[in-house]
Design a protein that fits this description.
Order of helices and strands: HHEHEHEHEHEEHHEHHE
Helix content: 25-40%
Number of helices: 10
Distance between the termini: 26 Å
Number of strands: 8
Shape: globular
């Protein structure tokens, strides 16, 4: 069944999807610029599109089996994706799967425009929304009413909760939009599980920069989510996986695992205001000098790397 979603509703989600942008040498980023959405992440646009694409492939490979299990529970489910960006990730994860309808929401209007221009399916739409306001309730309720559904069978939230205020409150709120037999699927990060062996002090600089980057979000979110879910009234909470490791992948995907976290290009910025501690920028410079040698050693299997990436599902 295909539904024509001939309406447009705009929201603004408080979600900062990490996009690297070229920062000119004559540009001095500031806190005010950060608040307007300028990213500290740098690198040329084509390279970043490629990196994000490979990152999604890696994470989607992990998520695929879990989504197979979830989709097997429903016939043509209704899907909500929170923090959809330009829609590429959720569309890739749903490729080949049957679903009644999909709505993706994100704060970035330009990315939503790109998503809707790319999307050709009449049962899929992308909207700009603010999950921190009452407007969200009107939008989701209106959408469900429009398609004749009482709730979403699957709510998908990927690397979003670490970037929003009060994720515990949001999870309680979004639960009301699950169908009675609905499933919540979450992917998020937790640096508390990061590990490198054999360990070198050089990695301390990398971990420190992530911890004190203003845009990096709550780097220990993954381990908090099960608590938030339990206290938010969810049931049948399952931690499907807590990590991705360098022995899980080879070649391009192994390279991508490194770039997801350890690539020094992620933080290149010529202004200390990108960090909540002034010495974080100095630590970045220190790590940048060592990055190439560390990366080469990693690709030659001289380091084992484990990154804390949680995959969690729960029922209403």
């Amino acid at each position: 069944m295909y539904v024509d979603y001939g309406f447009s509703l705009y929201l603004c989600i408080r979600y900062n999807y990490k996009t690297m942008r070229k920062i000119k040498n004559d540009t001095k980023p500031s806190i005010s610029m950060l608040m307007k959405g300028q990213s500290i992440y740098t690198g040329d646009e084509y390279r970043e599109i490629t990196r994000i694409s490979q990152q999604n492939k890696l994470l989607n490979r992990i998520a695929s089996g879990y989504l197979d299990d979830i989709f097997s529970l429903y016939e043509n489910p209704t899907v909500l994706d929170v923090g959809c960006a330009d829609g590429i990730n959720i569309l890739e994860r749903l490729k080949g799967r049957q679903y009644h309808s999909l709505i993706g929401i994100d704060r970035n209007e330009k990315k939503i425009e790109v998503a809707n221009k790319r999307n050709k399916a009449r049962n899929t739409t992308f909207l700009c929304c603010d999950i921190s306001t009452n407007n969200l309730d009107g939008v989701l309720s209106g959408y469900l009413s429009h398609i004749g559904k009482d709730g979403f069978d699957i709510i998908h939230i990927s690397s979003v909760l670490l970037h929003i205020d009060h994720p515990d409150i949001f999870l309680k709120r979004i639960r009301t939009y699950l169908s009675e037999q609905g499933c919540l699927f979450i992917q998020d990060e937790d640096d508390g599980l990061n590990s490198v062996f054999p360990y070198e002090e050089s990695f301390d600089d990398c971990f420190y920069v992530w911890e004190h980057s203003i845009e990096a979000g709550d780097r220990f979110m993954g381990g908090k989510i099960p608590f938030y879910l339990e206290n938010g009234g969810y049931s049948d909470i399952k931690i499907l996986s807590t990590s991705a490791t360098s022995v899980d992948f080879n070649g391009e995907m192994k390279d991508c695992l490194w770039d997801m976290y350890f690539n020094s290009d992620l933080w290149v910025a010529d202004d200390v205001s990108f960090y909540d501690k002034a010495d974080a920028y100095d630590r970045f410079l220190s790590y940048q000098e060592k990055h190439s040698a560390l990366r080469e050693a990693y690709m030659n299997r001289r380091y084992f790397v484990m990154l804390g990436i949680f995959f969690i599902m729960a029922s209403k």
